[in-house]
Amino acid sequence: MSTLSKREHFEGKEGMTLKVHIDEETTAELTQIDYNDKSNEQIDGFSAVFEGPVEQAFDQDLHRVEHPDAGPGELFLVPVVGGDPQKRHYELTVANLKDKSTGGHTKGE
């Protein structure tokens, strides 16, 4: 199962809907509302913020998800404070160390 940790799955995808499996019987649909590049000279990273219904809240954890383009995978999602009290907000943060021996490419590429 993919971890969906590639930026192309989230960069420029605001408005995309992600289905999150809260448990074996319950899913929630989250909409991506933001994307931020967090890269610097040492880290290749990004974050994406999602919003979803208040009544389907869940704790931070590694969750099974269904991405509309990349298919099923797992993401570590964390609840965060958002501007709209009628919605729950969650953040995905991905950070990979850049390996200087490969000319700045991310380890594992």
Write down the Rg: 15 Å
Sheet of most strands? 6 strands, antiparallel, barrel
Alpha-beta content class: mainly beta
Residues in β-strands, percent: over 45%
The residue ranges in which pLDDT falls below 50 over 5 or more consecutive positions are none
How would you write the strand order of the largest sheet?
A: 1-2-3-6-5-4
N-end to C-end Cα span = 18 Å
Order of helices and strands: EEEEEE
Number of helices: 0
Instruction: Please state the overall shape, judged from the principal axes of the Cα atoms.
Output: globular
Number of strands: 6
Helix amount, in percent? under 10%
Structure description:
This protein is mainly beta and 109 residues long. The protein is built from no helices and six strands.
Topology at a glance:
Layout: E1 17-21, E2 27-37, E3 43-53, E4 61-67, E5 71-80, E6 87-97
